[in-house]
Amino acid sequence: MHASQYLLLALSMFTCCDTSVGSDVSFGPNTFSDLLSALTDIGYSKAEALPVPRLPLSEAKTNYSTSLCAAACNFLGTILPNITSQPGSASYVGQEANYWSNQQAETLPSCRVQPQSALDVSASLLVTKFFRCLFAVKSGGHAAFAGASNIQAGLTLDLASLNIFHVSEDRTLTQVGAGNRWGEVYSQLDPLQLSVIGGRVAGIGVGGLTLGGGISFFSGRHGWACDNVRNYQVVLADASVVEVNEQSFPELYFALRGGGNNFGIVTRFDLETFPQGDMWGGMRDYPITANASLLTGLYNFANNAPSDPDAALIVAFVYYEGEYLANTDIEYAKPVVNPPIFNELMAVESLTSTMRITNLTDLVEELNVVNPSGFREIYTTATFRNDLNLQSKILEIFVSEVSGIKDAEGLLPALVFQPITKDIISYFGENGGNALGIAESDGPLILIDISFRWSNSVDDDRIIAAANHALGQSVALAKSLNLDYKYIYQNYASQGQDVFAGYGAANQRRLIDISKKYDPAQVFQRLQPGYFKLSN
Ligand SMILES: Cc1cc2nc3c(=O)[nH]c(=O)nc-3n(C[C@H](O)[C@H](O)[C@H](O)COP(=O)(O)OP(=O)(O)OC[C@H]3O[C@@H](n4cnc5c(N)ncnc54)[C@H](O)[C@@H]3O)c2cc1C
After folding, report:
1. How many CA atoms lie within 13 A of 52 on its CB side?
2. Into which family does the record put it (predicted)?
3. What pTM, to 2 d.p., does this model score?
């Protein structure tokens, strides 16, 4: 018998593995022969050949976090060589460069797998479960903190090649592979005079944005991205590929609308599609002295927006190259210059303006340019009642926190206000309701996003502390004024924020129960540690 066949025999009897994940739990497949059978069952006939991991088992057993993943990676490199990238290879290096923040790009998995089909995702999941190798899933890679969609010494599934795009004949549905970025989606829809609810910056991935909520320029008319998914194609914890919609799996359909990466790996989103032509919008910069007028404009817009659901607004304050500035992003879903809803804000004198009639692709490309990759980043967030005094005081807190870190290299801190208006919230109840736990009677709400960018890792601790301190003080102030609100937007949250508690106790419990039903071994909670888990 050849040495490798002895090894195969040993492996076939081997039950993988005693690990820190808990040897009491079986993620399945349990033995190597089970794994080979499972792979053969889903169509990987090559698995019957000799896909022996090159790493000796004794070594594999000694170090869970690295060696077992190395074994998984060697195995995947054998059965799926074209889509498995080992460290040092050009494709591994290229994929690592495709994260927005440097903290994520500096996170180095044992290998990267770039599935080309749902079946590849399914096979990769079977393998990573067998080896108990911790994994992460990446769509557009815009989550800021390390480990959100990449994993040190684990296995990263990079969905970038799942990039199908197909519009139904009746033009009411667009099927979008989970690895697409919004710029790619809009640039194909704009020529058809169609659109979908998605991100406002070209480089954001369809996957993360849609699973966490998804604020769009058209949210006043249709709600958030998660409210506009008619069907999800998902690889579940048992590696089966299912179509999830309100009829087929109503519980999962609820859970995926806000549940993040906790329920499965979504391989395709089928999005509600509507006619959309050119629109009016752009960015305006102002001196910081315009702050009071802009905050008043924001306050009134948040209250009045339901009178004109075509309007969308972001108000931001930044510190850039030695001075504070204010900025608005004003968008209108029709090709109408200066619609009355924006009269108050447009009356504020700006330093610069890019307001124009154009298409969505152009607008999201513009915002992509001002949000470049290649920096260290933190996003952190809270939601408050709409109150002018509170918003003014939060700006003071921001200015005070930034004053202590101004010397940091490449610093660009921003305080961003976005209204969650009553008309937006009215769509959260569509299709049986999403999981976010926000009632229309709670609106209008103001979402704040404190986002700091900087260049040098030596400044990490103090900048992260400043951002967290600014948020903590803002929340404390809101509480003291009875203007706080429970919701924490997953897509802007920092590591450690208790996102699911913010959905309300009943929704959090419901999500946990659904997760236990469809993922009894808790694969997506325990083997995929990154991002926001259901119970912190
Ligand atoms: C510059 C910038 C602009 C932004 N603009 C907006 C905006 O306009 N509107 C808005 O609502 N938010 C916005 N965000 C926030 C954005 O929605 C989140 O950062 C989101 O997580 C990014 O999605 P992604 O796919 O690019 O990220 P990734 O980092 O790839 O994924 C984020 C999380 O989702 C999980 N995930 C991704 N795809 C899948 C999948 N198919 N199946 C299972 N899990 C998956 C990942 O595992 C990860 O945990 C912005 C963020 C940035 C940095």
Report:
1. 16
2. Belongs to the oxygen-dependent FAD-linked oxidoreductase family.
3. 0.94
